[in-house]
Amino acid sequence: MNISRIIFLSAAILAASSATSRAENSADALQVPAKSLPVPTEDISPEMQAFIKAPLNPDWNKLWKTADEARAYANVQAAGVMKGIQGLKDRMGVTVEAQTMDGVKVYVITPSTIAPENKDKVIIHTHGGCYVLFPGEAGTTEALMMAGLGHYKVISVDYRMPPEAYFPAALDDAVTVYKSVIKTTPPKNVGFVGTSAGGALTMEMVLRAREQGLPMPGAIAPGTPMSDVTKHGDAFYTNEMVDNILVSRDGFCDASVNIYAKGHDLADPLLSPVNGDMHGFPPAILTTGTRDLLLSNTVRAQRKLRRAGVDAELVVFEGQSHAQYQFDDRVPETKEAFGEIAAFFGKHLGH
Amino acid sequence: MNISRIIFLSAAILAASSATSRAENSADALQVPAKSLPVPTEDISPEMQAFIKAPLNPDWNKLWKTADEARAYANVQAAGVMKGIQGLKDRMGVTVEAQTMDGVKVYVITPSTIAPENKDKVIIHTHGGCYVLFPGEAGTTEALMMAGLGHYKVISVDYRMPPEAYFPAALDDAVTVYKSVIKTTPPKNVGFVGTSAGGALTMEMVLRAREQGLPMPGAIAPGTPMSDVTKHGDAFYTNEMVDNILVSRDGFCDASVNIYAKGHDLADPLLSPVNGDMHGFPPAILTTGTRDLLLSNTVRAQRKLRRAGVDAELVVFEGQSHAQYQFDDRVPETKEAFGEIAAFFGKHLGH
Predict the structure, then answer these.
(1) Considering A333, B77, B341, B350, which has the largest number of Cβ atoms within 10 A of its Cβ?
(2) Element (H or E) spanning B259, and its range?
(3) Predicted ipTM beyond 0.85
(4) Mean pLDDT of A238-250
(5) Cβ separation of B36 and A29 shorter than 8 Å?
(6) Least CB-CB distance to B14: which of A239, A315, A328?
(7) Which residues of B touch A250 (CB under 8 A)?
(8) What superfamily would CATH give domain A59-348?
């Protein structure tokens, strides 16, 4: 049967093949020629186009071998972030207070206005950065936007990272904060939000909470989650050298995870939550972009959630690479992304 | 500011750039080297892997110049489909009756069991095939699955195609069937389903219905819709030579649309519905795959719908090229796709 006859053909006679691993099926690999990608413009704001047309992140292949090397880079990067943080706080109209909750460092972010129906709600934020980047207040930018654009009180977890601590320290700290919050706030009124490693943490926190017999939160918002750090996920290949932030599955983020994991099995659902059992998860909204290296691992997570009967929504932005929907609060697509998340929390928290 | 400092950085200082067309921004084009894509296997059934690892559709660059050429190809292809149609009907447990409704040829498909709550519901199906392929009963495969897997009565529109008729004949016929159906069925009990050109038609029908002052249907399910036939959509580039069905924006489907449009403006929302005003649209569920050449034009349609306040859900299958979720009823992902659509119709029809 000629393949022309099976285009769009639902009733095609299909020779079932047995599943083979990537290693076994290299003969079936698809060879894609070099190509030139114009900057997409339709339905994309000029501000977002500027991010999309930026050259490849020149540091994508910084393959640090030690936690100290990673931290030295993180410190320089964080100093850069901090230069813009007061402007962001001002635009968001939020106040920020550094505190500790049961020994874990957090930033408590309060917007100038909270809608009456959100006054008893709390969002816990886990920042991104491959488990090694954005120490201290530099990790709060997404939390500031969640508070300022979404009008919720947000607690951003300044979880321990290498070289201070390794897996599962980030998760332990985040779950400690959750336990602390639900002493005074009904669990159904609590949402989790985070992007990249922070997106993975929102799911890992649910897995760990269930393990420990804790009640489920009301909803979660995993943004382009690092849901599989074992290099499975087709977009690791299709979007290689297309995503201008992560660029490659063999880049700085992979090196970072290996430092954080410190030899722990990367397939553990507490590091690769797509491998976890998602039955009983709270409603989830997932966000990614068509050029995102983690496009596959976002949609795989949504499929796993929905196969487990969970109400899981998916937002995919045209042309965006990894996490670009939360780079700048002044970009229309950023307002849109946090508008979607806030509406989702509004619909599900408390119920 | 070094780009390393803006990775994941929400507060980055952003130099706004003015929007430029693709033609103007070729200097900003991203050069992507040749690559080899292994067959993705994680969370993908062996049956679907067989479709994913098939070589590029050898007929992707059949660039027919006349309607007669296209029809000659369509007839051969349809004959191939028809060889499998009885088996599909048997597996789906449906009966099929050829009829006309107000002069339009249709196939009325009735499943052996219809849940009591679905007895007063009707799904109108518009088949795919770039507005020139799958004449006659060969166009019913997706409708058979919708009826058999989703347990709804389905009316599949055998709309006129070139060389018999040109734009807007397909749309006219589909809207005629809708008008006929709502003589006896409340509009809120009617759903529209279709893939590719059929997915675009589900949206074009809503635009046309609103234009004519007709009531809205209860819900629509645009599958990987040809929502923009002007070659806008980033995945036309990123998934070029990656999608093994459509392969290229300059392939058979583009040639087909030009034949159907017969000189009509391709940007007209009745040919490129992403350009339409989507306020007041019924709830929608959209389906695509990460390798789909129409990934962008599916997610753009979802964004447009949600920006217009419409409840629009998105399903993206890992590794799939264009329309592969509806190639074979025996594939687990096909059951999953129609399960999602049926559940969505179940939630929204009648309300």
Answers:
(1) B341
(2) helix B252-261
(3) yes
(4) 98
(5) yes
(6) A328
(7) none
(8) Alpha/Beta hydrolase fold, catalytic domain (3.40.50.1820)
A152-192 confidence digits (pLDDT tens): 999 999 999 999 999 999 999 999 999 999 999 999 999 99
3-state secondary structure chain A: CCHHHHCCCCECCCCCCCCCCCCCCHHHCEEECCEEECCCCCCCCHHHHHHHCCCCCCCCCCCCCCHHHHHHHHHHHHHHHHHCHHHHHHHHCEEEEEEEECCEEEEEEEECCCCHHHCCCEEEEECCCCCCCCCHHHHHHHHHHHHHHHCCEEEEECCCCCCCCCCCHHHHHHHHHHHHHCCCCCHHHEEEEEECHHHHHHHHHHHHHHHCCCCCCCEEEEECCCCCCCCCCCHHHHCCCCCCCCCCCCCHHHHHHHHHHCCCCCCCCCCCHHHCCCCCCCCEEEEEECCCCCHHHHHHHHHHHHHCCCCEEEEEECCCCCCHHHCECCCHHHHHHHHHHHHHHHHHCCC
Averaged pLDDT for residues B7-36: 58
Residue position matching structure tokens 């998105």: B314
Q: CATH for B56-348, among 3.30.360.10, 3.40.50.261, 3.40.50.1820, 3.40.50.740?
A: 3.40.50.1820
- Residue (of A11, A141, A5, A226) closest to B8 by Cα position: A141
pLDDT confidence of A140, banded at 50, 70, 90?
A: very high
Examine the pLDDT at B214 and tell me if it is beyond 70: yes
Q: Does B304 touch chain A (CB under 8 A)?
A: yes
Closest residue in B to A245 (Cα) is B7
